[in-house]
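User: Hey, quick favor. My workstation is busy. Could you predict this chain's structure for me?
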Amino acid sequence: MERTPGVLVLLGILGGVVTQSEFYFTENPLNVTSSLGKDIVLRCGVSGVGDMPDVEWLRDGEPFHVADINQIQVPLEDDGWMAISELSIPSLQLSDGGSYQCVVSVEGEIILSDVAFLDLEGLPFFTAEPQDLHTYSDAPFNLSCDAHGPPDPVRVIWLQDGVPLNSLHDDLALTPSVLEVRGLNKSSLFSCEAHNAKGVTTSRTAAIKVLPKKPTELKLLSRSSTELEVAWIPGSSGVYPLRVCSLQAALPPAALGSAPHSKIYNQNVNVPPHSHVISGLAPYTAYRVRAACLSSEGVSHWTDWVEMTTMEGVPSGPPENVTAIRNGTMTTVMWGGPRAPLNGVLRGYKLAYQTKETAEVVVDAGLNNELTLEMLHPVDNLTVKVAAYTTAGDGPWSDPVIESLRNYDGSSLFPSQAVRENYAPVFSWHWWYVFLAIGAASLGAVFAAVFLARRRKKETRYGEAFEPSVEQGELVVRYRVKKSYSRRTTEATLNRLGISNDLKEKLRDVMVDRHKLALGKTLGEGEFGSVMEGQLNQDDYILKVAVKTMKIAICTRSEMEDFLSEAVCMKEFDHPNVMRLIGVCLQNSENEGYPSPVVILPFMKHGDLHSFLLYSRLGEIPVFLPTQTLVKFMADIASGMEYLSCKNFIHRDLAARNCMLNENMNVCVADFGLSKKIYNGDYYRQGRIAKMPVKWIAIESLADRVYTTKSDVWSFGVTMWEIATRGQTPYPGVENSEIYDYLRQGNRLKQPPDCLDGLYELMSSCWQLNSKERPTFETLYLELEKILKNLPPAKDPDEILYVNMEDPNFLSSDDDGELGAVGGLDAKDLGDDLFLKTSSVTAEVHHSENSNRYVMCPAHETTRLLRVSVSMEHPPYTSAVEEGTLEEVTAIPRI
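Assistant: No problem, here it is.
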């Protein structure tokens, strides 16, 4: 055989010996130039006679062991062989570049192929990108951007809010590049573009938020025994005005041992003015106070703790154990110190005494706990009382004490005959009659219970037996069936279904006897089942429940086991924001197939969240839901989903319709696993696949039907949008069949009106194309809690009545007058809030941009409905219909 010119026979690389071999390379790997992320294949061929050795690969002279090496051996004439080896490298990375060659070892002889070089080139890739940052007004900061080829060189252009800050010929364009920003007064977006011969790559966009600086000079203005008035100077916040500051007061660690600060006061304060009175404090107590301020961009840092002390107060309680003993004309009064807090430094005690014939006399006893009173002549019915006092004043007096007489042996007798005659007895005889009547009634009830117990018929499990015979007075068997009894018990049903013993053991606390469940009215019905009201007999009480009956037929034992296994999983859930499963029972169907499952869940007073939100907007009496309530709903769902994700449970159908509101207005995540197909709205049938809630499903799940916790995060973002819009349907105007293409083009849900920017940014982060970039439910819950904490406190919904004032039939004032100002506001400015005052209520009117008018007023025993309409053509007078009585209402500007 003739050798090719490219054959190399070397010594020592792999410990071989130089000899002539019958093997040689017929094909050498070729040089390759490719781009990052692409797939390539390197190939070499070797021929020879005898046993064909394996072909190995070297990279940069070192053995290269990868899984993607394919070798094909083809027999030739004269016992010859030909081997072809292919090295596949998928998705090229920078580390894959270098020299490659094949090597064959035959009896110590090393044969190497020609060297092939793999060169990479393509668009620049980033090793450092600008990151999100919180900064302060006019505070300098730096951002970094580093990109590489090949091909090199790579140059960088910085952009602020989409506007270039430099050119490709500046020194700043050299990579790595550091952008030095001297300071901002408003939040901005920064990114960088990396350029090389192959094109341009854009980095991630960094959001730089300008937060307010922390307040300074927090100091005490005035104080009392229960209040501290503080003031502070707010820090710079750029172009964003400060509207709210937070004040916290805490006991110092010295008062708590080794415990951390115990916050006893936490209040959001509207500013200006930048001062506040902290009330409800304990007298003569040291507190630590700090402040922080809030703009639309976020919260500043807290100030350092500043120690402040309230002034002294009067003692909280009277002295204890007051006694008065008379000996002739002298009366000795003794007492102990107060048990209640002194609220200051004890300055002494005051003693007051009097008789029926004389006026009260007050004596200062100083710091003594005993005082002797000497009378000119013996007196009877002398009463005394004692009070402690501090610099702030006198504390409460002790209860009056009647003096006792000194006996001959030195003991005291109380009270004396004279005193006993002057005081009514503590116990009156008419109370004896009440006690005797109660005792007689109780005794009669006991005798009646014993008599009935002896006469009671003996009951068995299936009926009544052994009732007394009237004629002979002896027990005879007269069996009567109490109720029909079915032999198809739960155990028998599970045995008939062939359920495994292990699963039956787990179902011990899940399965419920169908006879203990009574169904009531239907609450809702869909294509796959219905929701009914029910009552579950719990032996000692009746529990009101919600019952979900399934119309979907279970045809195989495997489907039944899957269903019951999910029931076992749900039964173990224990979280205030996750719907708790009470139990499952099996209801025999009309045919002889598998029984249909019945799911038993707690009854939720306010129904599902989606219906509640719709009713708040479109009901007969619309209810205005403040932002605080909406964010609270979102936080509840995030908390429940965080719990489910920690349990490695994927919901797959998270939406407002699948969240329930309990009696405390807390949201519970529901309709996972067992009953996710109960509801039928907003589903789209794709081929023969079961209906899918396409407007809530993540884009990757629409593409390949793969569900993860991050796909639940996408659904949670859509659910947040539902709550923010108070029940609107997502993607209005987009058909279900068009959703996937709509999302693939980069479109997302738009920011709802009146939705906070921070809230929309949070829900937008749930819709990242790359699921790994979406936040976790833990992060979402913490961010929502932070947003909720920064919002001003909402009014108690139980104290607020919301009325839609859009009805044109509402009465309005007929007073004449020209179009003019309302408390200094032009008529066109009536969008600001006004107060309405009547003789019985004070109401607050909120005007929106549309024609809707809402009135909020405190609940009143005689005021169930207040309907008001503001006349735009007359002075600020309007009328109200209150309990059918026409009253004039005056509108004044909000202060």
